[in-house]
Amino acid sequence: MIEKKRIAILGSTGSIGTQTMDVLDSIEAKPVALTTNRNIKLLEQQARQWQPECVTAFDETAAKDLKIMLGDTDIRVLGGMDGLMEAASLPTAEVTVTAVVGMAGLLPTMAAIEAGHDIALANKETLVCAGSLVTAAARQKGVRLLPVDSEHSAIFQCVQAAQGNRIAKIILTASGGPFFGKTAAELENVTVEQALKHPNWSMGAKITIDSATMFNKGLELIEAMWLYDMPPEDIEIVIHRQSIIHSLIEFVDGAVLAQLDLPDMRLPIQYALTYPVRLPCKMERLDLAKIGHLSFYPPDEQAFPALRIARQAAARKGNAGAVMNGANEAAVALFLERKISFLDIPRLVGQAMDSLPYQQIFSIDDVLASDCAARQAVYTQI
Question: What digits encode the pLDDT tens for the residues 152-183?
Fold first, then answer.
């Protein structure tokens, strides 16, 4: 009997986390650690079904309630950031899926790398904020950073066909979100409800808002820079409304390779967990005749300045990614609370980028300090 692959899933109750749970039977895997922020009802269900060694609720109050809920089991219940880091670095795990949203994923990811786990990376912010530190730690520990995002998985899959040939350019595709074709003036009175209606993907609130502002694609640009050691000027972004081509690479001779699939995260999740082996995936197959046509457009950086801001952060490196990301997380939270307008998000992020000094980063503490300063810079403008 083949032993099941042991996996720690950070953010198991979120969009990526629940889809990761969907593929476990197909790939003969078992979760040994599961975590949530505060969705303890779903985490309890997952825990009872899969019987992991431990579960964690990042919210300390939720962790106390979860401990009572699972009191009739032998499952250890942890709480807070310490609990998240312990779950991420559990000695019995081979792979850690980092599906925690936002800056909260950085410390657990570093803990998992330190423990020698391969990383199925779904947390963009880890590389955006601390790319130089994370990639250096992964090289030192000999662990693999396996991308889960559909775009970076597409690039990763295309790179397998490169066979050592030099890649001239990465082409990231973007759906354009719910406001494709809108002018800045037309975005003045966008509501939270409108921004949360993504045309192709079902995602959590924060990522969906990032898609609407196009900060999500800016984060992916910086992530690609670190994952593939590619200068930001060689990373192109193109709007592809159908979300069928997930990204492309261009070789020095002009040949372009693309990875195509339906907008379903289960395939990239599964490939990250089974690489380099491919296994059957329980999802609908792509039917090009049914799709009919594929369209492409240049992004509008006047209406969506997030892309310009992200390119500035990518060019600066150092703490610029942490500043941009921290300011964006703060601004998105304020928008979701209806305290600022949609266009205030890039405005506040741009102001934080302009007002805070550029610094090199030498430690995680440097990253956390820049993140904190960026959030404060946003709050002081409200």
Answer: 999 999 999 888 899 999 999 999 999 999 99
Segment 324-366, tens digit of pLDDT: 999 999 999 999 999 999 999 999 999 999 999 999 999 999 9
Bond before 357 cis per omega within 30 degrees: no
- Between CA 321 and CA 333 the distance in angstroms is 18
Structure tokens at 193: 């409800």
- CA separation for the pair 270, 280 (Å, rounded): 9
Report yes or no: 262 and 244 within 8 Å, Cβ to Cβ: yes
- Encoding tokens for residue 281? 């995936």
Nearest partner of 362 among 327, 330, 317, 296, judged by Cα: 317
Sheet holding 245-251, edge to edge: 235-239, 167-174, 245-251, 256-260
Q: Provide the CA 340 distance to its chain's centre, in angstroms.
A: 24
DSSP calls for 121-164: E--HHHHHHHHHHHHHHHHHHT--EEE-SHHHHHHHHHHHTTTT
